[in-house]
Amino acid sequence: MISHIDETLEELLRKKVPLSSEHYDISFDIPTKDWASKISASKPTINLYLYDIKENRELRTNEWQVKQNLNGTADQKKPPVRIDLSYIITAWSPADPSPATTPAIDEHHLLSMILKTLFEYPFIPSDVFLGDLATIDPLPEIPAIVTQPDGFKDQGQGQFWNAVDQFWKPSIQYVVTMPLDLQKKITDTMVTMVTTIRTIWISGHGSPKTIIRLGGIVTNDADPPAPIIGAEVTLVDLNRAPVGKTFSDSEGKFTSERLSEGEYTIKVSAPGYIGIEKELGDITLVKTEDLIIRLKST
Fold first, then answer.
1. Rounded CA gap, 78 and 262, in Å?
2. 2-16 and 103-120 helices cross at what angle (nearest 10)?
3. Are 142 and 176 in contact (CB under 8 A)?
4. Handedness of CA 281, 287, 291, 294 (dihedral sign)
5. For 2-60+80-181, CATH number?
6. Do the strands 172-180 and 273-274 form a parallel or antiparallel pair, or are they unpaired?
7. Can you tell me the distance from the alpha carbon of 291 to that of 253, in angstroms, rounded to the nearest whole number?
8. Which of 61, 91, 163, 190 is deepest in the core (most CB within 10 A)?
């Protein structure tokens, strides 16, 4: 996954920095003296060196991710671990200092364009995702922090440049928080959204009352099925009196609130589809499959 973050960062710079990508190289190697002696002699090089890898404990969670499927099942997936990848970004000009050329100015100009681009994207935009990042469903949010005051606090810049046998160079500290997928998924039956609330009258008179909240999903009959947005869902009682009307949302889901115990029929219709009417029977005994409504096109 780290290599895919590297590829994504290169794509970010090449697509978003306002400079033709043909005018510079990008490297992820450690910027030693030997490395610097071998970079391009015709164009500058941007170096992104990954110097630290740590878990982001502030984003740690034990809550499993749940994705509801249109076939009445739900995928439960262990949440990814969040890892902070710390990069030091430097610019390297191939020019030698002379009255006519000032390599430092060229490097500073390149750093300023990179800095502006990175600040424009507090989250790495998904249109530059490469490798496994582009296959995660849904696409993850990947936050990135630029030039924080405590950047390089533990390692120390002086120690770093001494270790690579280089003079100090201006640099951008860049921390990308990536999801490390633990690749454990469990598929199970989706629980129908039926909630009962029992209320005893404060006066002590009367019987406890059961209030029911019911939910389901409306899809077309394609394979795989797709949600139908704005389908009209009506519940009617044994006397054919409507007791609740609602509409499916952007995911095809619907809920009906504050229903009393009893037997009901559900009626579902949507423009462009053949409406259906289905007897649910005792609402407290409704099964998941009874509330997955599939409509055929007209």
1. 39
2. 110
3. yes
4. negative
5. 3.30.2000
6. unpaired
7. 10
8. 91
Question: Can you read off the two tokens belonging to residue 53?
Answer: 């890898």
Residue 233 reports pLDDT greater than 70: yes
Spatial CA neighbour of 274 closest among 253, 295, 250, 246: 295
Paired sense of beta strands 292-297 and 209-220, if any: parallel
**Residue whose pair of structure tokens reads 């030039």 in the numeric block:** 147
* Contact by Cβ (8 Å): 177, 144: yes
Length of the chain: 298
Other beta carbons within 10 angstroms of residue 83's beta carbon come to 18
Q: Kindly give the pairing relationship between strand 273-274 and strand 292-297.
A: antiparallel
Q: Which residues pair with 218 in a beta bridge?
A: 293
The mean pLDDT value for 39-47 works out to 91
Contact 114, 17 (CB under 8 A): yes
Q: Which two tokens stand for residue 17?
A: 């920095």
Higher-confidence position of 76 and 218: 218
Q: What is the pLDDT of residues 11-33, one digit of tens each?
A: 999 999 988 878 899 999 999 99
pTM of the model: 0.59
Q: How many angstroms separate the CA atoms of 144 and 11, rounded?
A: 15
Quote the pLDDT of residue 251.
Answer: 81
CB within 8 A of 224, min separation 6: which ones? 70, 71
pLDDT at 61 over 80: no
For the chain, the distance separating the N- and C-terminal CA atoms, rounded to the nearest angstrom, is 46
Q: Are residues 25 and 46 in contact, defined by beta-carbon separation less than 8 angstroms? A: yes
- Residue whose pair of structure tokens reads 């849904």 in the numeric block: 138
List pLDDT tens digits, range 157-206. Answer: 778 888 888 888 999 999 999 988 765 444 444 434 444 444 444 444 55
Across 102-129, average pLDDT:
94
- Got the DSSP string for 182-202? ---EEEEEPPP--EEEEE--T
- Structural domain boundaries of the chain? 2-60+80-181, 191-297
